[in-house]
Amino acid sequence: MRIIDKTLVEAIPWTDSATYDQQLSQLSMDGQPFIVINPELPYSVLDLIKTNIIENTACIKYKVGKGWIAKQFPGQWNGRTQIMQIEVVPCSIVKDKYAVAQFSYNPDAWDLKYDHIYTYDRSLTGGAEIDAATLKYIENTSGRKIGGTASASVDNNFDIVFLSNNEPDADANYTHLLTKSPNAKRVNGVKGILNAHKAAAELAASEMFWVVDADAYVVNSFNFDLVPYIQDRDVVHIWHSHNPVNGLEYGYGGVKLFPRELLLGQKIMPIDVSTSLGRTRVVKEVACQTRFNTDPFNTWKSAFRECAKLSSKVIINQINKETEERLDAWCQLNNDLPYGFYSYSGALAGKYFGEDKSNDLSVINDYSWLQEKFLATNTQLNIL
């Protein structure tokens, strides 16, 4: 059936329904049946008409809601009109992973040209307007229209995993963690920092999970109660930790909240796991004390690794002034605290190692290499 060119339809002025339809009926120039598309809509709305109507002498008006999308005129119109109400379903629905499956929306004809958007309840997004689902009734849309608020299914109960490799105080720190979080899980003895974190991700069953390091003594005021907004579920959250040797409070050794799938998908060992997966957010609340000064090697190793990162400025989005202040604090000798000299020795050695751009920084994650470096450095100092 012939479709009348839209420019001819647009040229007919609106006065009243009867006059308008009478003028439309005169667009037939050959006495054959034809179809007129609502001039506000694209030709693709014809795809929404799924029923076959026997031609007769009436004008058949196809309506969606309160408006019409097309009118089918006979070659010779007798002035009668027959209404055909059409129920349309979206040709596509694109949902965010948190959006609940069912959506109920009945557009009017003049709204078919829009993407119909369901947004999340703003309590789930911190007040931001974030799309949960997009419903399309035609392919080539020309704008957006908010259709309602979508329900969401989000995981707010995150597992806690204690990550250790037989460190001296690991058992005591894990026992303390269990007094706060009796269901906390533990990964122990996995070689390789990335492998250990992946093992923690595999042990966790929740969408995000907390990681507490072996040398972290969680403070009583910290409650593992942050629930990220929907748009922040791919962000690594890092809390501050108190350093008992130099008094610094920043992300070193802090409690972390990881996106599980993001961590499982990491293939290459980064220099720093926490800051290399993507977006990070530092929460300036002290969650723990990092009690790394437990014996000569672990104290030296921890200071060496951190100061190598600081001096090489490898941490993504680090602020130079803060980095330099932290490095300076690490490199101050404090002999009054347990293993303070080993912290100082490791910090200086790590600082010089990181500053030398010819060095392969990835070796700071190889504990066998660190053991050899420790023995060589401290044998020279004659302190072993």
Rg calc: 34 Å
Mean of the pLDDT scores? 92
How many helices? 9
Give the amount of beta strand, in percent.
15-25%
How do the SSEs run, as a string of H and E?
EHHEEEEEEEEEHEHEEEEEHEHHHH
Low-confidence stretches: none
Biggest sheet statistics: 8 strands, mixed
Might you state the CATH topology name of the largest domain?
A: Spore Coat Polysaccharide Biosynthesis Protein SpsA, Chain A
Q: What structural category characterises the helix and strand content?
A: alpha/beta
End-to-end distance, in Å? Answer: 96 Å
Spell out the CATH superfamily of the largest domain.
Spore Coat Polysaccharide Biosynthesis Protein SpsA, Chain A
From the spread of the alpha carbons, the general shape counts as elongated
Number of strands: 17
Oligomer: single chain
Please give the share of residues in helix. Answer: 25-40%
CATH classification, class level of the largest domain: Alpha Beta
CATH architecture of the largest domain: Alpha-Beta Complex
What's the gist of this structure?
This protein is an alpha/beta fold and 384 residues long. It contains 9 helices and 17 strands.
How would you describe this structure in keywords?
single chain, 384 residues, alpha/beta, Spore Coat Polysaccharide Biosynthesis Protein SpsA, Chain A, 4 domains, 8-stranded mixed sheet, 9 helices, 17 strands, 26% helix, elongated
